[in-house]
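Lab notebook page, bench 4
Experiment: in silico fold of construct C2
Operator: M.H.
Input chain length: 123 residues
Purpose: comparison with the prior construct
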Amino acid sequence: MFGLNFEKMIIVGVIAAIIIGPRRLPHCAQKLGELVRLLRVQVDTARTRATESMGAEDWQTLDPRQYDPRRIIREALDEPSRPPTEYVMSGSSGHPRKRLVARKSESSADDERSAAGHSAAER
């Protein structure tokens, strides 16, 4: 704490006792104690206000560990792959509509089935 150890604190106390005098020393020590308590209360209040204003959830969103590339890749590989879907936007900019377009692999498989069904029916 500020480079002060026990020996230096004793030296400062002895010098203060000589300069202040034995009559005023208890009064000054009491005032110093009150000042230290007041300072601690103010620091605790400021810390509490800062914690309340930031919020615990804000600290979690700022956690840099969430941006670890190894974790992101691991989570992406562990997720089951969803079938890709394609959408076409239609309508006006005021009322856009999202329309689902069938995937090419499904539509080509459906075309082959229907072609096979038509050829069997014609025979």
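Observations: Helices lie at 6-20, 25-54, 56-61, 69-78, 104-122. Residues 41 and 47 are 10 Å apart (CA to CA).
Next step: discuss at group meeting.
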